[in-house]
Write a structure and sequence with these properties.
With about 725 residues, the protein is an alpha/beta fold. Among the domains are: about 225-240 and about 255-440, no CATH class; about 475-720, Alpha-Beta Barrel (TIM Barrel), CATH 3.20.20.450. Helices cover about 60% and strands about 5% of the residues. The chain is built from 33 helices and 9 strands. The chain has an 8-stranded mixed barrel, surrounded by 5 helices. Strand 8, helix 32 (about 685-695) and strand 9 form a beta-alpha-beta unit. Helix 9 (about 145-160) packs across helix 11. The two termini are about 60 Å apart. The structure holds ligand C2E and magnesium ion (2 copies). The site of ligand C2E has 23 residues, from strand 2, helix 24, strand 4 and strand 6. One magnesium ion binds near residues 624, 625, 645, 647 and 681.
């Protein structure tokens, strides 16, 4: 347990964004993630062109002619064919965003940072060389160097931006922000590219090589030393997978080598077979393609299965489902970019170990004669099981070995899937509690929003939730997916009867579980659909109140719904309420509106008129959370208030705190003279009730009576208390 616990902890720390290289890793990972649409289109093109089904290939030729693959070729050319550029630009963009977050007074336009990085790449990229020049290095083969360029050029650029002397300030007339931003970055941009060209010139002079070729040669170096077939296989697998971790398409880079070594091995085996001699090579390209790289590099089909059976994270499972079909044809870019595997320390170990383990098991099975030597060449896109059967010339043992390997690989991946889940859950929890803090705090950012425009994990979470909430409200208006109301009783302690029910909105999100009400309100306000949410709450509360009425609940019990400031700004609100009342045939006194105290402090504001209209319609108006903030009793006389709800800030400590009880006494006296009822919130114990009754309060709401209840339970509770 000791060593496993230690390793698990270390992996978690590495995956956390707050270690030294965390932000850089995150920028690179996000750069890859931004490319997902481009990658997915490329993958689709590869799949369409290479589906290893003879009748499909024939049908496509018949339908679209000999050159039908040109279409997929074009898509590939614009996507995976130039994948270095979007990856580099995305990484650079994220680095600039991180910089902006840390230095709000020196913000740079992230697009300019990306463009400088692209220019830097083109300074060093070989246009022509023995590998194919530009077109070769723009594919995944050039990704590693592209990432180095993104990191170094952007770091240099941002460092230069920080220098006071290099800033040219141009103040634009009007609102055009492009001009000052462009000039702000002018000198740092020029200097970055000049320094880049100079350093690269020195490098070229010293090594006589382009950086691309230099890195390439370093990667191929170990293969010059080793001779043995099994060792070569192991080193090949180790290097290709280590390269993938850094975002480099290892199989592409090592392609000439694979052909040279592993094809020769297959040929030698064939010659020996024809001569009736023992076969000299265990590891051929067929063994690696068919029995090891099932689903693509990292034997990623095993990872897909591990995610499907072992992951509790809905997003990871969804990604696994999306990756399953291309994975069946051994194409795994969506998984590698989407999970992502690249620069993800948690998956580094299994991503390298699984292929090595599968190579070992395959070599043993073939060596001991359990599975025939794979002598038949099959297309690399041939799905697993079919491939095992075909390459062993129709031996079921080939299928069994693939199944066995899939099981081993999945078992190795499973614990890492769990660790990854834990890390994600921890991050989600942190982001959710930060979002809750922001939602409860009434401050808005410079963009006029509380959370939706933040560029950190909290902002991402807020945007996902806002999108899903809006979709739930617009697509399934009647039974908005996951949304429901709970009701908390307000009880008259003298008679023991329930006087009212406060409707509180709840949302069970399919991935994130129960989302607290203040977050819903904050994202709906930020996203400008608070009116839709409010309408849903109002209609549902009316519908359920009408049902309670049919079940025999007296008309004097009112259901109150909360309304935020923004809702009260809407001139149409009184009409909307009216039509809800008519639709469910409710008397206005059966419903109420709770407005927080902060809303009520401005008697001149337009919402006062709207509140007055709602009051005139006969609804009960409550001032919520009184005592929580800027309590000012004087305003009560400007407002059509029926009920004042005393907040926890006063009610929690009333038993021990004399100031609280004195403030409450004053409120009670004033309310008595203004004919305003008092409801005290957050009642959790009997002592509170006794002290508050002595102060003249009789209606209470809180966990002492009941927590918020579902619709059915609420009805049963009212029936039991009011019979
Ligand atoms: P609120 O209107 O003051 O609602 C009372 C909150 O206090 C509820 O939390 C309730 O569950 C909690 N509470 C009640 N009694 C006790 C108690 O004895 N102890 C403790 N610890 N908590 C108690 P909830 O549901 O999380 O709602 C939080 C706030 O979100 C509400 O404060 C309200 O301002 C807002 N909200 C809820 N539903 C809606 C809605 O439909 N529309 C709008 N605009 N706001 C809503
Ligand atoms: Mg309330
Ligand atoms: Mg309240």
């Amino acid at each position: 347990m000791g060593i496993i616990g230690f390793l698990t902890d270390k992996l978690r720390q590495l995956a956390a964004p707050d270690w030294a290289f965390g932000p850089t890793l995150i920028a690179v990972r996000n750069g890859f993630l931004l490319c997902l649409p481009v990658v997915a289109a490329g993958v689709l093109a590869v799949l369409v062109n290479n589906l290893p089904i003879p009748w499909y290939q024939e049908a496509m030729t018949q339908l679209f002619g000999e050159n039908w693959k040109n279409f997929g070729g074009l898509v590939w050319q614009g996507t995976l064919g130039i994948i270095t550029i979007p990856t580099l630009a995305g990484t650079s963009y994220h680095m600039a965003m991180q910089h902006n977050h840390a230095h709000p007074l020196q913000t740079v336009n992230p697009t300019i940072a990306s463009m400088v990085a692209i220019a830097a790449l083109f300074i060093i990229i070989p246009m022509q060389d023995s590998y194919g020049g530009l077109t070769y290095w723009l594919t995944t083969s050039g990704l590693f160097v592209a990432i180095i360029v993104a990191l170094t050029s952007t770091r240099l650029f941002l460092w230069l931006v920080g220098s006071e002397r290099l800033r040219i300030r141009i103040y634009s007339e009007g609102l055009d922000t492009a001009i000052p931003q462009a000039f702000f970055c002018l000198l740092p941009g020029i200097l970055t590219l000049l320094i880049f060209a100079l350093l690269y010139g020195i490098f070229f002079r010293l090594t006589g090589n382009s950086l691309h070729q230099f890195v390439h040669d370093c990667i191929l170096y170990p293969f010059g030393i080793i001779q043995n077939n099994i060792n070569t296989g192991a080193v090949y697998l180790f290097i290709t997978h280590l390269l993938w971790f850094f975002g480099i398409h290892g199989p592409n880079i090592l392609d000439p080598l694979t052909h040279g070594m592993f094809d020769t091995a297959l040929q030698a085996n064939r010659v020996a077979e024809a001569a009736g001699q023992p076969l000299p090579h265990l590891i051929t390209k067929q063994v690696l393609d068919v029995f090891v790289s099932m689903g693509g590099s990292g034997s990623s089909l095993c990872l897909i299965i591990a995610l499907l059976v072992g992951s509790k994270n809905n997003n990871s499972r969804r990604l696994a489902k999306i990756s399953l079909v291309p994975g069946m044809f051994n194409i795994n870019e969506i998984l590698l970019f989407g999970l992502p595997i690249i620069l993800n320390p948690i998956f580094l170990i299994p991503f390298i170990c699984v292929p090595l383990a599968l190579m070992a098991s395959s070599a043993l099975a073939i060596h001991f004669g359990l599975v025939p030597y794979p002598m038949q060449v099959v297309e690399w896109t041939t799905p697993p099981l079919l491939g095992g059967f075909a390459t062993t010339r129709g031996s079921p043992a080939g299928i069994v070995l693939q199944l066995f390997n899939l099981a081993i690989g999945t078992l190795i991946y499973l614990p890492f899937v769990r660790i990854s889940d834990d890390v994600k859950t921890e991050r989600q929890k942190k982001a959710m509690s930060k979002l809750m803090d922001i939602a409860c705090n009434n401050q808005v950012g410079p963009g006029g929003k509380k959370c939706l425009d933040r560029d950190d994990e909290v902002g991402v979470l807020a945007r996902v939730l806002a999108y899903d909430l809006q979709t739930a409200l617009t697509r399934h208006h009647e039974d908005a997916a996951g949304l429901f109301l709970e009701y908390q009783p307000q009880v008259d302690s003298k008679s023991g009867r329930v006087m009212g029910m406060e409707a509180l909105v709840r949302w069970r999100h399919p991935s994130y579980g129960n989302i607290p009400a203040p977050i819903l309100v904050a994202i709906a306000e930020d996203g400008d659909f608070i009116d839709d949410l409010g309408l849903w709450v109002l209609r549902t509360a009316c519908k359920e109140r009408a049902r309670w009425h049919e079940a025999g609940i007296d008309a004097d019990l009112k259901t109150s719904v909360n309304a935020s400031v923004r809702q009260l700004m809407n001139n149409r609100l009184p009409k909307v309420i009216q039509s809800c009342l008519e639709e469910y045939r409710l008397k206005p006194g059966m419903m109420g509106i709770e407005v927080t105290e902060s809303v009520a402090i401005d008697p001149e504001a337009p919402h006062t008129r709207i509140l007055q209209q709602i009051h005139d319609m006969g609804l009960v108006i409550s001032i919520d959370d009184f005592g929580a903030g800027h309590s000012s009793l004087i305003y009560l006389k400007y407002f059509p208030v029926d009920i004042l709800k005393i907040d926890q800030a006063l009610s929690r400590d009333v038993v021990h705190n004399k100031v609280c009880s004195e403030v409450i006494t004053t409120i009670v006296e004033l309310c008595r003279s203004l004919d305003i009822k008092i409801v005290v919130e957050y009642i959790e114990n009997r002592e509170q009730i006794e002290v508050l009754q002595d102060l003249g309060c009789y209606i209470f709401q809180g966990y002492f009576y009941n927590k918020p209840l579902g619709d059915e339970q609420a009805l049963a509770y009212i029936q039991s208390m009011n019979e």
